[in-house]
């Protein structure tokens, strides 16, 4: 029996390897020689075992929306702090708006403590240029004053009332420590002078405690390794926009009329743009509470399908129909009686 099984295995082995030996190219000496291979692309067949073990990535990673390497470092909390929320100062930019939020992570999801948007700035006097560096500063300032007012800390922590462009960090008071949050920039590239640091500067001047460095503010000199406060102040008050307006007015008047058409309609000129932002900052500090928008009642649309009746309505409709039939039948009987007479 063992010999038979051994022979069968040998026979199988020969059957398996014999075609491979015949396919090898040999030269006249009986040695293998090089031959260019023209193999076609073979599709990789993944087995059932592969798919049963496959684990997909998080949805927001698949969508390219969340950097989980950064997120896990922003939301990790010390275990000896138990259920204390760890707040993030989240800043996001779109084409026409800026979103600033104070967010904390929970098991159920992220909870937003307070939020501010650039589209709220027209309520404070800024009707144009809602996505530039100066508008980002205003949005950050609005959020800082709003969250401190919500926590009843706005009187204790006034922040930097007049923006000078210099770096500012809030000092802790005697009773309550300042509200602390970590800057969350998302997938944004943190280049020097980026608008996200304008929003950061606004929140710092508003009275929030945010760990930061002055190296990325507009006006920081990489070679000299120090911040030029005058340049930074110019960006906070829209000086870079005013400079570009003056350049276009002199060199390309037609482009100025189209590029800054909204500024012209709003009466914003290069000389009064700084005063405009000062008024906006003062208005934000005076009343940072969010305004409720007045929603218009929905329009009544014509219905082409029959409205579904309730049970009582169907019953009443049936009674009316029976009464009408009875009345018609009674009228026919009266007519027959009159004909007989």
Automatic annotation (TrEMBL):
Its main location: cytoplasm. Pfam families: Ribosomal_L18_c, Ribosomal_L5e. GO terms for cellular component: cytosolic large ribosomal subunit. Residues 288-299 have a biased composition (Basic and acidic residues). One of its GO terms (molecular function) is structural constituent of ribosome. Residues 285-309 are annotated as: Disordered. Gene3D superfamilies: 3.30.420.100. Keywords: Cytoplasm, Ribonucleoprotein, Ribosomal protein. Belongs to the universal ribosomal protein uL18 family. This is Large ribosomal subunit protein uL18 C-terminal eukaryotes domain-containing protein.
